[in-house]
Design brief:
The chain is built from 27 helices and 26 strands. The protein is an alpha+beta fold. Among the domains are: 64 residues, no CATH class; 109 residues, Nucleic acid-binding proteins (OB fold (Dihydrolipoamide Acetyltransferase, E2P)), CATH 2.40.50.140; 44 residues; 248 residues, Metallo-beta-lactamase, Chain A (4-Layer Sandwich). The radius of gyration is 29 Å and the shape is globular.
Length: 764
């Protein structure tokens, strides 16, 4: 793409409109109308200066449509009904694809998967009164009946309505009581799109699990079949954009179509029509949701820039696309997806060609361009990513470089398979099988990149963190590219480096030196780590969330786990097991003697079988050793039945010794099991106590007194509904002389040995 002066005539109005929409989204309609009126007057006063007037008019227009959106959201009786938590009957029109969410762990229970469905409520019936409305809502349902819904479909639902978490986008959240009552079939276009998407999923059935789930995600954003571990690794590796329909997907499809048109010598006047037809077909395939429309707009901008060959034309097209999207859907003003799309597209069109020209001096041309594209996109998008998630991927650029050659063939072959599948499934399966090879490569890149040490760098989340990273990146670019202010830029970067180094000198890093035991902050559940050697640890329980325990083990540098001990089969102790198994060499799994709850036991056995990790039942009294770590199973001596909670009382209880420190890990034992330990177990005294059952009030005071712990740790979730840990339990331990730590407030808690002393470091 050639250079030339940047055409900012549409960029500035788009930026002003974006700022107005972001500021007014969620505000009352009258506020938006007032701002629009004031801006309209300003536009009249600046009419003789077209550039300023156009910018003000754009802001006024977005403010006006944002006010209309706010009026639509607040109109009708639904907001009042939601505020009272009323039970209503709604007639709905589905506006987007159902999204399946993983099961939710609450305490010891795993709740079934839920499905969220965006919709427009067109009629509400409550208290014998029926009113026609037009209000955006989000429906939460359970069961397979919700998963198969298609956009444009109409249905009737009964359920409780509640206010949305944040103002601006929705009128209410609908908690459906049962399956949907389908009133009207979807439109012909949406039915066709559903058939094509289902055909692609069927054709991809010839592939192994991970490529099978990934291929539809690459083609049309359907990630419903992607394993959760692969989703996490794509996020860590900075590859998530590949599984969301983006401007890149559209650009690939249009580039192939237009390239074929040129080879077939399609007349120049006809080629744009062919491109538009292909674009329309892709939008139908991926569903015309706001994100897909946004992707189509960004992809069109890329093609305009490629065909136009001028940076000014590209920027003008980008500005026009942003302004059009905001006028169509003002809720996009605060959408991270729109910000990432615009930043990535701008980097591709404006910055990447310049960086490629510089890199061309040191790298082969075939390598300089992809390096420039990946680096520019990552630099531009990193502040937004950091603001959202609080982490900066350090492997995103190399991961995207390695992934780039496979994206286009996988996407094109996948689109071809999707189109052919409804009429000729064997041919579609053959295309999907071929597409599976580049898709397999993307899986390998994601796994290996995510498994790299220090794949992500912790960074403050929120607006402050994003702005700070933007300042650092701008300073770095200035230092590299501008000679005049190089001294000032260098001084600024040096200041940042000194501040970071000084902060790390004052605040201990993680993990702390000499750590022997860590209670991971994984929410309401237990996940305990016992160090064996550098990179090697025994894990006791896995918590409720695979991501949380995986994060804790990554931060500790644990790559090898000779043994996982699961104290009992409650969800808050075992649901995180896939996170322990991810990217780690796990030797074996030991479980307690009670087979209940049966469903959770079945899930654990399934995970172990898929990871090819043997599973055994721990025996009371058994002693084992790994390095300097030695432990003994001291309970249950016999399997208890008929207690207040048999799974809790039959928890494995471990007495651990490591480098002169003794720990007592108690699972969720309650007074019945604690009394049995007092009666039959010797040597309950320990330096460190993992407080039983998250510090609940259900304790035997004599048991707590007998441990005489110096340090007591409660593994507990923030604002949990059970009141854990109970103040009385913590007070009892403090009176016994223990320093009490809790993972909801202290974060990860590490027990260390330094100079012969026991030291506790709380990460929070």
């Amino acid at each position: 793409m050639t250079g030339g002066p940047a055409d900012l005539r549409l960029v500035l109005p788009a930026a002003a409109g974006w700022a107005a929409g972001a500021a007014l989204l969620g505000a009352p309609a009258r506020a938006g109308l007032g701002v629009a009126g004031v801006l309209g007057l300003v536009a009249l006063l600046t009419a003789r200066r077209p550039a300023i007037a156009a910018t003000v008019v754009a802001a006024a227009a977005v403010a006006f449509v944002t006010a209309l959106h706010a009026g639509q959201v607040a109109a009708g009786p639904l907001p009042g009904l939601a505020g009272r938590g009323a039970v209503v009957t709604l007639d709905l029109r589905i506006t987007g694809d159902p999204v399946v969410h993983a099961g939710r762990v609450s305490g010891s229970t795993l709740f079934s998967r839920s499905v969220t469905v965006p919709a427009t409520a067109e009629r509400v019936e409550a208290g014998g009164r029926t009113v026609r409305i037009r209000s955006p809502v989000l429906v939460i349902g359970r069961g397979d009946g919700w998963r198969t819904l298609l956009p444009s479909q109409r249905l009737r639902v009964q359920g409780r309505v509640a206010p949305p978490d944040r103002a601006g986008d929705l009128t209410a959240v609908v908690l459906a009581d049962g399956p949907p009552d389908r009133v009207m079939s979807p439109s012909a276009v949406q039915s066709a799109a559903g058939s094509v998407r289902a055909g692609l999923r069927a054709a991809a059935g010839v592939l192994p699990a991970e490529p099978r789930g990934l291929l539809p995600g690459l083609v049309d954003g359907d990630v419903s079949g992607m394993p959760s571990g692969l989703v996490d690794d794509f996020r860590t590796a900075g590859l998530t954009h590949l599984t969301a329909v983006s401007g890149a997907n559209v650009a690939i499809v249009l580039a192939v179509v237009l390239g074929l048109a040129r080879r077939l010598r399609v007349p120049a006047r006809v080629a744009p029509v062919v491109g538009l037809v292909a674009l329309a077909g892709f939008v139908v395939l991926a569903r015309p949701s706001p994100s897909v429309v946004r992707a189509a707009a960004m992809g069109t901008v890329v093609i305009v820039g490629m065909l136009g060959g001028r940076r000014g034309v590209s920027l003008a097209a980008l500005g026009a696309a942003v302004l059009a999207l905001l006028l169509i859907s003002p809720s996009l003003a605060r959408s991270p997806g729109l910000a990432l799309s615009v930043l990535a597209t701008g980097a591709l069109l404006v910055v990447a060609p310049r960086w490629a020209a510089v890199l061309d001096r040191w790298l082969p041309r075939w390598l300089a361009e992809p390096v420039a594209i990946a680096a520019a996109a990552q630099v531009f998008c990193a502040p937004v990513i950091a603001a959202i998630g609080g982490d900066v991927s350090l492997v995103a650029v190399p991961a995207n470089l390695l992934a780039a050659p496979a994206v286009a063939p996988a996407t094109v072959l996948g689109v071809a398979a999707a189109v052919i599948a409804p009429v000729l499934m064997p041919a579609a399966q053959a295309l999907a099988w071929v597409a599976g090879w580049p898709t397999r490569w993307l899986v390998v890149v994601a796994h290996e990149s995510a498994a790299a040490p220090h794949a992500t760098f912790p960074w403050p989340a929120g607006l402050t963190g994003g702005a700070a990273l933007a300042v650092v990146l701008v300073a770095a670019v200035v230092v590299v590219r501008r000679r005049a202010p190089r001294r000032w830029g260098s001084a600024g970067l040096a200041g940042v480096v000194v501040a970071v180094v000084g902060l790390h000198a004052l605040v201990p890093g993680w993990p702390p030196s000499g750590w022997l035991f860590v209670a991971c902050a994984v929410g309401q559940g237990d996940a305990l780590v016992l160090r064996v050697a550098p990179g090697t640890a025994v894990v006791v329980d896995a918590g409720p969330d695979p991501r949380a325990v995986d994060r804790c083990l990554r931060d500790l540098g644990v790559r090898r786990v000779p043994l996982v001990l699961l104290s009992h089969f409650h969800a808050d102790h075992v649901e995180g097991l896939p996170g322990v198994l991810r990217h780690r060499a796990v030797g074996e799994i030991e479980v307690g003697p009670l087979d209940a709850p049966v469903d959770e036991r079945r899930r654990v056995l399934g995970w172990a079988a898929r990871a090819r990790v043997p599973i055994h039942v721990a025996q009371s009294g058994e002693r084992r050793r790994a390095g300097d770590l030695e432990w003994q199973v001291i309970a249950p001596l016999v399997v208890l039945h008929g207690t207040t909670s048999d799974p809790n009382n039959d928890s494995l209880v471990l007495r651990v010794e490591t480098r002169g420190i003794t720990l007592l890990l108690t699972g969720d034992v309650e007074p019945e099991a604690q009394q049995a330990l007092l009666d039959h177990a010797a040597g309950l005294q320990a330096d460190v106590l993992k407080i039983p059952h998250h510090g609940s009030s259900h304790q035997d005071p004599a048991f707590l007194d007998s441990v005489r712990a110096t340090v007591a740790v409660a593994s507990v979730g923030t604002d949990n509904p059970y009141g854990h840990p109970a103040p009385a339990t913590l007070d009892r331990l403090r009176r016994d002389g223990a320093r009490v730590y809790r993972t909801d407030r202290d974060g990860d808690v590490a027990v260390c040995r330094r100079d012969g002393r026991l030291v506790v470091v709380a990460r929070g």
